Amino acid sequence: MQERSFGACGSVVVVGQGTWQLEEASRAGVVRTLRAGLDAGMTHVDTAELYGRGVVEEMVGEALAGRRDEVFLVSKVLPENASRAGTIAACERSLRRLRTERLDVYLLHWRGRHPLAETVAAFDRLVAEGKIAAWGVSNFDEDDLAEVAALGTPACNQVLYHLEERAIEHAVLPWCRAHEVAMVGYSPFGSGAFPSPRSAGGRVLQTVADAHGVSPFQVALAFLVREPGTFTIPRASSVAHAQENAAAGDLRLTAGEIARIDAAFPRGRRRRGVPTL
């Protein structure tokens, strides 16, 4: 599995495991799939207190039992909890659900009513206490990033990023690259809206996939992590799906293939803010 620098956090695998909406699946199946993902090299695991109101963190904690030291573990605080005291309390609840004493990165899930200075002060205290190794943000545009960077350096920015939603490439990704902030793309398959194999773009993906003996989904993941500093966190629904996602971490597309995919799925115009689900 390919790795690259993740801000000041060291090297992290480019394809990790997302866990949004896993509360809708069976607990045993989720645990089995996450463990299979770890076995396949997807040691970056992302979750949040939002997911299933803590239920998903509990599932992740069970899956990581006895394997915590293998994992780059990320969770997120809800904006409504992101006051100075609220962030610390939320982190401690997440740690209990995850059955761990530390997070590798703790993110502000999106910007809310609490001043960023309060949230960052809480993050700094959590770092000092050893409860988190680093902090970051999610769903921040380039203006928000500049504002939070005046308070400290985020390890990453987590944003919506898939083939048919590439708006972050206009300004957010360049900002992150210039400031050595990792960019983590969530929902890389478009949340159920993956290009149809009968569409023009879908046919391009299939042609590239056939050339490598892989699936169009693996081609999409490889394209989304083609740039330095980029990572992706697909969710898997089964052991086989997790193994398929992991294999994309070693797929290298040619310059010509990247150009074909780029043309089939244009970035579109620049918009204010960042896209979200």
Query: Largest sheet at a glance?
Result: 7 strands, parallel
User: What's the Cα radius of gyration?
Assistant: 18 Å
Number of strands: 9
**DSSP helix count?**
10
Average predicted local confidence, pLDDT = 97
Distance between the termini: 28 Å
Order of helices and strands: EEHEHEHEHEHEHEHHEHH
Read across the widest sheet, the strand sequence of neighbours is: 3-4-5-6-7-8-9
Overall description:
The chain has helices at residues 27-39, 55-63, 84-98, 116-128, 142-149, 172-178, 200-212, 216-224, 239-247, 255-264, and strands at 3-5, 11-13, 44-46, 72-77, 105-108, 135-138, 156-160, 182-186, 230-232. With 277 residues, the chain is of the alpha/beta class. β6, α5 (142-149) and β7 form a beta-alpha-beta unit. α3 packs across α4. The two termini are 28 Å apart. The model has no long low-confidence stretch (mean pLDDT 97).
Salient structural properties:
277 residues, alpha/beta, 7-stranded parallel β-sheet, 9 strands, 38% helix
What's the SSE blueprint?
Elements lengths: L2 E3 L5 E3 L13 H13 L4 E3 L8 H9 L8 E6 L6 H15 L6 E4 L7 H13 L6 E4 L3 H8 L6 E5 L11 H7 L3 E5 L13 H13 L3 H9 L5 E3 L6 H9 L7 H10 L13
Parallel strand pairs: 3-4, 4-5, 5-6, 6-7, 7-8, 8-9
Antiparallel strand pairs: 1-2
Summarize the structure.
The chain is α/β, with parallel strands linked by helices and 277 residues long.
